[in-house]
């Protein structure tokens, strides 16, 4: 129950924006690779072999008309008997394609084929159908199509995993009241059972850890203020108020970085022995939460 004595930290806009962006990205990739594997590559293969028939038609016309006495009727009768040569592996062609496929009617036209320009005939043919005249330089092999299926399944798994964590996080919250704290997993611990509060990542990452010993056992709670509550001034910094309330009731040991310890820790992590504090590539994610003239974390 949300009462004045309770601080409730729900999933932040920071988390939602990033989670939704990842979900959209993986979702787009999933649809993209599914389309290529099931439709796109197969349709391009059909276009590739169909366009080759135009080159074959020009070659045969040139052979038949070597003496210059080929008539339009003779060419039409010959063209009507010809079929587009597709590979035996139908797995690389559209599922709806019914074979054999005769040459397109435009190749039966003596006057169209006579200039011996297969590209021009192809462009006219695709223009009449309203499709692209571009064809791949090579057809897509079964291996190429299978690669699209593999990536599709990977992206689908990533999409479902991202959706799972998004839905799970949306149903979670961190609650601190006068009696105890409830972490994001729903675990409830009384204030008097908390023994240690680790704040070394609170000022930079918005993450704290609380250890406890209770009659039901011992454990460690993760309090992620960046995911739950947040530090936005517009929202009155729910995560910071949550930590202030927790500390007001806490009687155990608190671990914090002093400025010297933090600098030494950064040097040890980056191998910087110059005595200068290296720039944090992640940045201080809680800078927006600090008031002017106020120490990090809003603590006096």
Write the topology of this structure.
Blueprint: E1 7-9, H1 13-64, H2 72-80, H3 110-113, H4 118-129, H5 142-170, E2 174-176, E3 180-182, E4 188-190, E5 194-198, H6 202-205, E6 207-214, E7 217-224, H7 238-249, E8 253-255, H8 259-270
Parallel strand pairs: 5-8
Antiparallel strand pairs: 1-2, 2-3, 3-4, 5-6, 6-7
Written account of the structure:
This protein is of the alpha+beta class. The protein folds into two domains: 13-145, no CATH class; 173-298, no CATH class. It is built from eight helices and eight strands; from the N terminus they run E-H-H-H-H-H-E-E-E-E-H-E-E-H-E-H. The radius of gyration is 34 Å and the shape is rod-shaped. Mean pLDDT is 87; it is low at 268-283 and 287-300.
In short:
The chain is built from eight helices and eight strands; from the N terminus they run E-H-H-H-H-H-E-E-E-E-H-E-E-H-E-H.
Structural class: alpha+beta
Instruction: Summarize the helix and strand pattern as letters.
Output: EHHHHHEEEEHEEHEH
Number of helices: 8
What strand order characterises the main sheet? 1-2-3-4
Helix content: 40-55%
Outline: rod-shaped
Give the low-confidence spans.
268-283, 287-300
Mean pLDDT: 87
Largest sheet: 4 strands, antiparallel
Number of domains: 2
By DSSP, the count of extended strands is 8
* Rg measurement, Å: 34 Å
**Beta-strand residue percentage:** 5-15%
- The N- to C-terminal Cα distance equals 30 Å
Please tag this protein with its features:
single chain; about 300 residues; alpha+beta; four-stranded antiparallel beta sheet; disordered C terminus
């Amino acid at each position: 129950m949300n009462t004045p004595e309770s601080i409730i930290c729900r999933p932040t806009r920071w988390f939602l924006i990033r989670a939704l962006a990842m979900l959209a990205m993986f979702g787009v990739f999933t649809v993209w690779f599914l389309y290529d594997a099931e439709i796109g590559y197969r349709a391009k293969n059909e276009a590739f072999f169909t366009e080759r028939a135009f080159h074959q038609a020009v070659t045969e016309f040139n052979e038949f008309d070597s003496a210059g006495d080929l008539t339009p009727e003779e060419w039409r009768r010959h063209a009507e008997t010809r079929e587009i040569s597709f590979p035996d592996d139908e797995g690389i062609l559209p599922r709806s394609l019914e074979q054999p496929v005769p040459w397109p009617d435009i190749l039966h036209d003596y006057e169209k084929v006579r200039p011996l320009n297969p590209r021009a005939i192809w462009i006219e043919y695709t223009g009449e159908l309203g499709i692209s005249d571009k064809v791949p330089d090579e057809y897509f092999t079964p291996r190429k199509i299978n690669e699209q299926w593999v990536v599709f399944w990977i992206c689908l798994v990533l999409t479902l995993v991202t959706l799972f964590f998004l839905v799970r996080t949306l149903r979670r919250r961190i609650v601190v009241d006068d009696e105890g704290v409830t972490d994001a997993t729903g675990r409830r611990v009384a204030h008097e059972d908390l023994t240690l509060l680790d704040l070394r990542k609170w000022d930079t990452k918005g993450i704290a850890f609380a250890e406890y010993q209770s009659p039901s056992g011992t454990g460690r709670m993760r309090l992620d203020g960046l995911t739950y509550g947040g530090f936005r001034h517009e929202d009155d910094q729910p995560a910071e108020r949550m930590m202030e309330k927790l500390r007001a009731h806490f009687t155990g040991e608190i671990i914090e970085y002093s400025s010297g310890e933090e600098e030494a820790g950064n040097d040890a992590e980056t191998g910087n022995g110059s005595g200068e504090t290296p720039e944090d590539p992640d940045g201080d994610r809680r800078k927006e939460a600090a008031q002017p003239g106020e120490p990090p974390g809003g603590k006096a």
